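Task 17 of the worksheet. Students: predict the tertiary structure of the chain below and write it out as structure tokens. Keep your answer in the requested format; marks are given for formatting as well as content.
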Amino acid sequence: MAPSKNLGNSLAPVEGALTNYLQHMPELQNDNMPEVYCHEYVPLLDSSDMGPADWANLASDIRANYLHFDGFVILYGTDTMAYAASALSFMLENLGKPVVFTGSQIPLCEPYNDARRNFIMALIFASRDTIPEVCIFFHDRLLRGSRATKINTHRLMAFDSPNCEPLAKIGISIDENEHLFLPPARGTLRVHTRMDTRTLTLRVVPGFDDGMIQAIINAAKETHVRALVLQLYGTGNVPSVKKEFTQMLSDASSKGTLIVAGTQCLTGHVMLGHYATGRALVDAGVISAGDMTLEAISCKLAYLFGRRDLTREEVGDLMGVSLRGEITPADALPPPPLSSAYQRASRKGRKYY
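Model answer:
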């Protein structure tokens, strides 16, 4: 990003600016730094203008150059970086090399910025062979791409991984959380570029109008919507008095729409059935999203439906399975509130990715 004279000095992608800067960056001349090859896309796009087709291009380019490089750094705008990182984590099956997203809150053209350090550290992590997965490096931490979400628009720590510790933190040294690393790839790289984005996301608020939601669902059926993602209260609750709402969900589910329940909370996970208000959703055929972020939920659905070799029931089952470390397995989640001593003891010390 740099001030564009054609846009009244508003910040916008400027072709050639980054490539020119990297050619004169003294850190890249250090013998301890990896050799860097820069590929600049034309035209450059703001991350808000990017979507599944652009993510597919990134995945395809990684496939084309996979054998020529030890790792990949993707410089990306922060607004949709978490979506892109989640999408590529699913697109790149059996990934055996690091793919590190990074960017900045302050543009590189400014005297004081966070872009320089973020880029240098992303290069360092991309040149290591310890964490071969899609990640985001930002501020002082390396986050799993399928677990990250943007949490702040003005602070340098713009991203966090609410339900999963950072894979690594930097200080004077690099501290890696090795117990979180995914197992090594068991096959050759497979790239999936088809993403079926026919999903609808609704965030429930108190006093919502059932009729409006019914109209939205009816309209979505005309475009053959594959899944409806609901952001619900707390552990996955809706008002128990809204019988029409749960019946509406049951009808939609019986007609082929996958209903997925996520939580509006930043941390924690969905526990459908723990409260009576959530039990009605289970009876209506609603699937729990566990502790996945909204970015991971939407990209995972797009990936699974885009495969075209899975039934709706199989997609529903796989939503609860950790494919890229995006969800905590149910048996490793913290026990529910007011749980018994046996429940707490049986889950103590469980490992998960």
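Marker's comment: DSSP finds ten helices and 16 strands in the chain. The chain has a mean pLDDT of 89.
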